[in-house]
Amino acid sequence: MAEYILSIDIGTSSSKAVLFDLAFNVVASVQKKYETNYPNTSWAEQAPDQWWEALKESSQDIITKSHVSASEIIAIGIDSFSTTVVPVDSHGLPLRPGLIWMDRRAMKQAHWIRDHFGEETFKISGNLSDAGNCAPKIMWIKQNEREIYNSTHMFLQANGYLVLRMTGEYSMDKSQAGLSQLCDIKTGEYSKLLLDAYGIDNTKLPPIYNCTDVVGHVDKKAAALTGLKEGTPVIAGSMDNVAAGLGAGAFKDGEVFISGGTVTTNNVCIHEPRSNKKLHIYPHIIPETWIAAGSTDFGGGALSWFNEQILDKSDLSELSTLVASSEAKDHSMIFLPYMVGQRSPIWNDKTTGVMMGLKPTTTRREIARAIMEGTAYGSRHVIQILENEGVKISNIRITGGSANSGIWMQIFSDVLDKQIDLPGVVDLPPLGTAIAAAYGVGAITSFQEAAEKIPIRNSFKPNIENTEYYQDMYELFCTVYTNLQTEFDSLNRIENQVKKNSK
């Protein structure tokens, strides 16, 4: 009998269910979209039942589409976006919509933690206190929705919520725990010191599992609703970014994977929990491996914004072709891609996008190139921080929508002065989750075994002439941001005053 792995990937706008064979070939896939609600400025919520409905429908559809029997699926893995807070009652039912990764309502709580327990938080968790992380969000619920906090049996992540619906078991995986601000980055366990400092009840937090651990098995009720076989093992899973890293085959010290989506996330694998206040750090799926990460929070999003809102276009391929017809030195411009505020590595919620170098001769081609370059400069900033600490970068792989643009990949290669490899698999988070699930049930005995099966579909090598030019431009990029920090504060203050006066 053939054997298969089912991966569920919970993204910001949609979920994917992908069925793999044990050679990690895609057998079938299904995508389901859902909505995000923005009830207030900087708030972002999703109803957890949307994820569950998507999982139920996708599981049924994928069995029908693939003609694979549910009894042939030997393991299920679920990954999701990070730093989400879902409070559930004693029956496992959500008490309110989930506060997803984009939600920034807990800025007051995050700043309070920095002011009172900032050094302890960084020393223990390896991360600075940030409004997007779980601890400030839980504190916000406790302070603003006390009845919900008191009624909460467990606070869960998105993938942990779905594991619960599948198995009846509560869990948090180690990768999600790494950005929770609740845990010790070295041990992966909850920190009593931090929980006491934040006033968070440890009985409301689920057990922590390795990403590959089998948390439970599909129960009778879930089997009836999903079409999956009762008793199928379900692993703890991971955050989607970590799953993408394993799916890209990046897990050795110094290997880099860049996820080029709406957010351009830059991830460097390290074999010790090396903390830096400019970066995030969290465990990889692979034991004794961590990921140091920083992002451009509106990297790919900036190009999509320009294409859709300014050019009124829907297809980015035309814009990439246009940029490919230009040369790097044709029209020197600097774009700061910090349009939605910026987390790691600069930690400034007040930033906006900035374009420098506009001239009467500037066309959409030059602006689009500058946006691509600005995103690449953001990646260089993150990687250079680690290189300055002695990390030897050995391999860079880029995934996501940005990887569909050859000229953008060449710009990345020239700016980073490194060879860029593109993994040949499109859905990397589901692939990484499938590898983790296969390892968790013993279908494979090493991660290297799976990595060797991941093809490279294309590579880009740096153009020496361009790298010298981009070195100068990158230094200017950093200088422009440094010189505008006070002005970002002033603009933010004016905007807030206008809003206050208009009420």
Describe this protein's structure.
The protein has helices at residues 48-66, 107-125, 134-144, 146-151, 158-167, 174-178, 192-198, 220-226, 240-247, 299-310, 316-324, 364-388, 406-416, 428-440, 447-451, 464-502; strands at residues 4-10, 14-21, 26-33, 45-46, 73-80, 86-88, 98-99, 154-156, 172-173, 208-209, 214-217, 233-235, 238-239, 255-260, 264-270, 280-283, 290-296, 334-336, 354-356, 395-399, 420-423, 456-460. It has 503 residues and is of the alpha/beta class.
Going by helix content, strand content and strand pairing, the class is alpha/beta
Shape category? globular
| Average pLDDT taken over every residue | 95
Please describe the biggest sheet, giving its number of strands, its sense, and whether it closes into a barrel: 7 strands, mixed
Strand content: 15-25%
Helix content: 40-55%
Beta strands, count? 22
Distance between the termini: 67 Å
Radius of gyration, CA atoms, in whole angstroms: 22 Å
Tags for this entry?
503 residues, alpha/beta, 7-stranded mixed beta sheet
What is this entry, summarized?
With 503 residues, the chain is an alpha/beta fold. It contains 16 helices and 22 strands. The protein is globular, with a radius of gyration of 22 Å.
